[in-house]
Description:
CATH class of the domain at 1-106 and 213-247: Alpha Beta
Number of helices: 10
Pfam families: ABC_tran (PF00005)
Bound molecules: adenosine-5'-triphosphate
Strand order of the largest sheet: 6-7-8-3-9-10
CATH topology of the domain at 1-106 and 213-247: Rossmann fold
CATH architecture of the domain at 1-106 and 213-247: 3-Layer(aba) Sandwich
Organism: Thiohalocapsa halophila
InterPro entries: AAA+_ATPase, ABC_transporter-like_ATP-bd, P-loop_NTPase
Number of strands: 14
CATH superfamily of the domain at 1-106 and 213-247: P-loop containing nucleotide triphosphate hydrolases
Oligomer: single chain
Order of helices and strands: HEEEHEEHEHHHEHEEEHEEEHEH
Distance between the termini: 25 Å
Largest sheet: 6 strands, mixed
Protein name: Methyltransferase
Keywords: ATP-binding, Methyltransferase, Nucleotide-binding, Transferase
Amino acid sequence: MQTAVSSTAAQPSSGATPSALAAESTTGSASAIEVQHLAHRYGSRVIYDDLNFTVPAERVVALLGKNGVGKTTLIRLLMGYLKPSGGQCRVLGEPSHALSPATRARIGLLFEGHLAYDFMSIAEIERFYRPFFRRWRRELFYDLVDRLELPRDHKIAHMSCGQRSQVVLGLIFAQDPDLMILDDYSMGLDAGYRRLFLDYLKRYLDQGGKTVFVTSHVVQDMEALVDEVIFLKRGGAVLQLPLAAFREGFRCFAFEQDGSAPPQPDAVIENVDLHGREPLLYTFATREQLTEHLREHWPQVQLGDERAMTLEDAFIGLTGKY
Ligand SMILES: Nc1ncnc2c1ncn2[C@@H]1O[C@H](COP(=O)(O)OP(=O)(O)OP(=O)(O)O)[C@@H](O)[C@H]1O
């Protein structure tokens, strides 16, 4: 069984373990999202059988996972679009399968970047959404969308993918939601519009009282905004910890070895990459802890220098390339 903070690997016996780092993530504040013992399967295919994690209120939390681990499925479950095979989720205090209209209005959902009503024009979609949201901020919608320099009677169906994304984001910011759930926020936006989106997100967060839950393959752009990361692995194992703790505690070392079998992931070694320019080993242990561990269990390994990592390198280092 997984706990709210868990990893597939057993824990090193001492030092900076994933769970020790993860313990720092408990904030004591109310939860915006709670996922408890969640199970879901499509036919006989199990996506998760005991998924547990919490998104604390007023935090920016990124759910990271490789293609196909079940990030979009999770959002469908959170919004009550899918019924889980077991367990439960609560969003803003209500069960996902019974979210009230008032609570739904407090959630800004970016889901696969699509707009259902693409036969409408820019002005029509704004008028259509407005009555559903008490705190509607029309000026935020037009501030974003007018940058596209399209006439307001331009049909959404006749827009490019990135332009539609801009409309979707305008609609979400105009809602002034308490919780934003963003499934793969980059959605075909070019670098400039991605930056613009991040500027808006920052302004939105600066108001205080806001929670953001974002799923992605990587969140390189958002690194400065994210408080916590949740790594979702195939089968539903999760590791949740503050981003700063992950960036400080997760390390990459080059290594050399004699001709015998390469080291394997174990209680201390999270991952080994033999496919790049040089063999690399990933761990939450310090150099001293790792050296001791290697001496005892993998004496054929000569530890080399520590390698600096971008967030993307670290993500791939933890979850593996393939
Ligand atoms: N309706 C469905 N019926 C059967 N299988 C499905 C269905 N929807 C998704 N799947 C499968 O469930 C798994 C998880 O899909 P999901 O879309 O949640 O992954 P994801 O983590 O969002 O992936 P990506 O990063 O590629 O968007 C995938 O293997 C997918 O093929």
